[in-house]
Write a sequence for this structure.
């Protein structure tokens, strides 16, 4: 420490807000899937991180499939030994031609979203029907043990096929660079610059979160599900097959986790335990937001993201060293002690 | 005797005999046989069995009796470790002050954390304890580096003051001891093809585990233990009868924190080092898993769970492809390759897969943990014992307090 406290400039503040929105969008996107399962269905799902990870590996798998190639002997060129040159040609060139094929390979990550949604829905439905269904009424401790076991098994399966090292999966060429965010707002150029992909991630998170809200709020299906979460028995007595809808909700939550994982691959190269790193944090986000509240989870995600960014500023660290390491947990403790049900939690959800 | 009824006394004596003769039956295979891989009777692992047994026994007093699921107990283990290592650096390499201070520090720390966290119950309590533990971990890693050693952790060094000890001879490294009896000193007994190892550190830890186990039995059977069970079964009703649950749960929290501190101090006594990774949330999760795997609320279950997880971690993880091929050499070639290929993903580096599958199978088919499995096997052989088997039966029921 020591030295005079530097007063942060306007640029630094704006940069931290942008940083915070970026972190917050990742937290919110991860937490919104979890809150569907944990906050609404009441299952303490430690396998949520594994679903995120499987989504990321959907992107890895697809980009590997797209670049699957066969050897073609090119007679017009020779290699350094004078033999005809062997060229690896992706199968995709044969189907779409070289130009389109290159574009498809370049856009592998966004394209994987289309693949990840059905795959993750299927994974979610299989997990719910095969396992979670039997655990709705069991103690939390049992749910933790079984979902933790499931998470380990899923991780090990991925590790067996893909190895333990992170696999770089780049974003499309068009989003590779950085965007001079400050220039747009009238600051000096090259002060607030931001990778394009992170802006894309932010927009994507907004769309997905909005979509989940709209689905639950404005469709009949969503209305029935919300009613079922509030009072499962009555909805069942009305002759509605609520179990089936809960299964679909679990599939939806898995798909949300999966696409969050797909879009995260260019930011952090996926490895088999990437989900576990996010898991604890997202439980904190869900509980701080209030059990069962989607809006709460989103708000808490952005709040914690922005607070974390500001806590990492040099001026703050000078006054309170180490605050950036603990701010999330500190805020969580304060909120849980002052607002018993979190930011937006309602009475009667997961209470004893 | 010892204030225990005959069943508990039998259990205690059984555990005492098992721990005393552990070096024999954990090494059932001759040293040069192909099954020597499964021998667990080496000092390092035996010490871990009993130390994590202590940790799990203590955790069970909180979780098994009151139903409060703490996700931050590793913080107390870590605090105990740091306290012990500082005693070794400043005072003496004798383990008595180190372990004593580790229990006291962990007790005070858990009093502070428990006092705040126990304002809430259920999942909120779990998240609060988790938040405190993660904060401790992050601080130990970063800002508290002068006290904790940060990433490198702490070890006793040559230049430490150690005011009570005579100065070290040149070239001697500081070693943990109990009045001159070094923790690492071992006696090896060779009988035929077998080698049995008797280690001072293991026996000291084992004696402490037996004392901890005895105290846990007394708590389980005391009026205090009954109050803790009442907290688990119906806290509202306890309130209506005019009893505040908070002092009881806080006492249970502090007791289990002190057990964790004892385990942390003993870890330092055995390997003379402490690091922040002992406080990470996965370490807290591990003791939760040990307790549930063995059977929460049973007396001996958590120790079994701890033993099983540590066994898998240390033994199964060491089986590699060469070893597997050695075992199945007697098979025809094609079959040998097939069998090895099937088993290989589950052992060695893939031991986590076995662990994950075991968690799932146990919780699906044996909701009461391993103890329920044992009780079922016991039930097959004797029809009478069912009625008298109350200690297991009580724990198997799902907890309504959740």
């Amino acid at each position: 420490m020591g030295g005079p406290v530097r007063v942060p400039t306007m640029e630094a503040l704006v940069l931290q807000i942008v940083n915070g929105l970026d972190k917050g969008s990742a937290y919110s996107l991860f937490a919104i899937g979890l809150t569907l399962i944990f906050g609404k269905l009441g299952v303490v799902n430690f396998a949520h991180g594994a679903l995120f990870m499987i989504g990321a590996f959907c992107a890895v798998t697809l980009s590997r499939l797209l670049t699957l190639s066969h050897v073609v002997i090119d007679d017009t060129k020779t290699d350094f030994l004078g033999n005809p040159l062997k060229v690896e040609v992706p199968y995709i060139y044969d189907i779409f031609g070289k130009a389109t094929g290159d574009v498809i390979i370049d856009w592998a990550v966004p394209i994987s979203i289309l693949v990840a949604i059905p795959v993750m829905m299927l994974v979610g439905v299989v997990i719910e029907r095969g396992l979670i269904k039997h655990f709705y009424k069991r103690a939390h401790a049992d749910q933790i043990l079984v979902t933790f076991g499931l998470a380990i098994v899923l991780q090990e399966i991925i590790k067996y096929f893909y190895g333990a090292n992170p696999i770089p999966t780049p974003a499309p060429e068009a989003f590779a660079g950085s965007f001079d965010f400050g220039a747009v707002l009238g600051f000096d150029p090259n002060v607030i610059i931001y990778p394009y992909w992170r802006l894309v991630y932010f927009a994507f998170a907004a769309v997905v979160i909005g979509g989940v809200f709209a689905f639950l709020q404005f469709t009949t299906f969503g209305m029935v599900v919300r009613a079922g979460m509030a009072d499962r028995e009555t909805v069942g007595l009305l002759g509605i097959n609520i179990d089936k809808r809960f299964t679909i909700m679990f599939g939806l939550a898995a798909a949300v986790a999966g696409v969050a994982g797909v879009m995260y691959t260019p930011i952090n190269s996926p490895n088999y335990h990437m989900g576990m790193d996010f898991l604890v944090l997202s439980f904190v986000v869900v509980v701080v937001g209030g059990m069962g509240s989607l809006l709460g989870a989103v708000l808490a995600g952005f709040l914690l993201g922005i607070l974390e960014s500001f806590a990492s500023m040099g001026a703050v660290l000078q006054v309170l060293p180490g605050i950036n390491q603990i701010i999330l947990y500190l805020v969580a403790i304060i909120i849980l002690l002052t607002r018993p049900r979190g930011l937006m939690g309602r009475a009667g959800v997961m209470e004893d | 005797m010892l204030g225990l009824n005959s069943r508990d006394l039998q259990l205690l004596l059984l555990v005492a005999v098992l721990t005393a003769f552990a070096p024999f039956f954990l090494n059932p295979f001759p040293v040069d046989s192909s099954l020597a891989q499964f021998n667990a009777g080496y000092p390092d692992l035996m010490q871990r069995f009993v130390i994590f047994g202590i940790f799990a026994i203590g955790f069970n007093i909180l979780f098994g009796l009151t139903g409060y699921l703490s996700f931050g107990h590793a913080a107390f283990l870590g605090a105990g470790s740091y306290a012990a290592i500082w005693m070794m650096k400043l005072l003496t390499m004798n383990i008595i002050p180190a372990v004593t201070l580790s229990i006291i520090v962990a007790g005070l720390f858990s009093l502070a954390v428990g006092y705040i966290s126990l304002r809430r119950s259920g999942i909120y309590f779990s998240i609060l304890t988790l938040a405190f533990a993660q904060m401790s971990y992050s601080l130990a890693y970063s800002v508290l580096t002068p006290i904790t050693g940060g990433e490198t952790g702490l070890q006793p060094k040559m230049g430490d003051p150690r005011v009570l000890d005579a100065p070290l001879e040149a070239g001697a490294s500081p070693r943990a001891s109990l009045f001159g009896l070094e923790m690492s000193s071992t006696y090896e007994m060779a009988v035929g093809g077998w080698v049995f190892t008797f280690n001072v550190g293991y026996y000291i830890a084992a004696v402490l585990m037996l004392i901890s186990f005895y105290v846990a039995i007394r708590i389980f059977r005391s009026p205090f233990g009954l109050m803790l069970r009442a907290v688990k079964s119906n806290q509202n009703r306890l309130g209506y009868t005019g009893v505040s649950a908070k002092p009881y749960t806080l006492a249970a929290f502090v007791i289990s924190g002190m057990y964790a501190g004892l385990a942390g101090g003993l870890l330092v006594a055995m390997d003379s080092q402490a690091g922040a990774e002992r406080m990470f949330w996965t370490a807290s999760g591990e003791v939760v898993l040990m307790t549930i795997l063995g059977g929460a609320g049973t007396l001996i279950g958590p120790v079994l769970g701890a033993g099983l997880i540590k066994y898998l971690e240390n033994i199964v993880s060491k089986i590699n492809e060469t070893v597997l091929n050695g075992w199945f050499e007697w098979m025809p070639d094609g079959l040998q390759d097939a069998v090895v290929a099937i088993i290989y993903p589950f052992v060695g580096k893939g031991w986590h897969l076995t662990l994950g599958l075991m968690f799932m199978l146990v919780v699906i088919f044996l909701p009461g943990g391993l103890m329920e499995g044992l009780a079922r096997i016991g039930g097959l052989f004797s029809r009478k014992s069912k009625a008298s088997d109350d200690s297991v039966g009580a724990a198997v029921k799902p907890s309504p307090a959740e």
Q: What stands out?
A: The first strand of chain B starts at residue 177 and ends at 178. The CA atoms of residues 18 and 25 of chain B lie 9 Å apart.
